[in-house]
Amino acid sequence: MPDNWDYINDYSKTYDLNNYNCSDFGIMVAQRASLYLPKTSGSYDNFIVKFKGRNPSDLGQDIRNMSTPNGATKITTKGNAPKKKGNC
Questions:
Q1: For residues 59 and 40, is the Cβ–Cβ distance under 8 A?
Q2: 54: how many CB neighbours lie within 10 A of its CB?
Q3: pLDDT above 90 covers what percent of the chain?
Q4: Which of 5, 14, 38, 87 is most buried (CB neighbours < 10 A)?
Q5: Is 29 exposed, middle or buried (0-12, 13-18, 19+ CB in 10 A)?
Q6: Who's near 28: CB < 8 A, 6+ residues apart?
Q7: Euclidean distance between CA atoms 48 and 24, whole angstroms
Q8: 3-class SS of residue 30
Q9: Which residues, at least 6 apart from 21, have a Cβ–Cβ distance to it below 8 Å?
Q10: How far from 26 is each of 20, 21, 22, 48, 78, CA to CA, in Å?
């Protein structure tokens, strides 16, 4: 298994909204650090978009509902999402 930085810089998967998206990438990076996140899938279907796969909303809810290891803390109060545009 490659080290975490190798995976982050040289991941071999091709982005696909339904099969390998940003949530899948985050889950895989966490897994390489021995943090096993749930792989919940959600779906969205209307006349413009049809989607079924892992997504940030379900992943965030899964993380929120997870037990934290001893010595760890988790903030579950609501916050504000970042701007849609701007510097990284």
A1: yes
A2: 24
A3: 1
A4: 38
A5: middle
A6: 7, 11
A7: 23
A8: helix
A9: 15, 53, 54, 55
A10: 10, 9, 6, 27, 21
pLDDT band with cut points at 50, 70 and 90 for residue 72: confident
Q: Is pLDDT at 26 greater than 80 in this prediction?
A: yes
- C-alpha–C-alpha distance, residues 30 and 38, integer Å: 11
Task: Name the residue with higher pLDDT: 35 or 12.
Answer: 35
CA–CA gap between residue 56 and residue 70 (Å, rounded): 25
Tell me what pLDDT residue 1 has.
45
Nearest to 53 by CA among 22, 81, 80, 85: 22
Q: Mean per-residue pLDDT for 66-82?
A: 80
Q: Which of 51, 41, 49 is nearest to 16 (CA)?
A: 51
Provide the strand spans (E) within the chain.
Answer: 42-45, 50-53
Single-letter residue type at 26: G
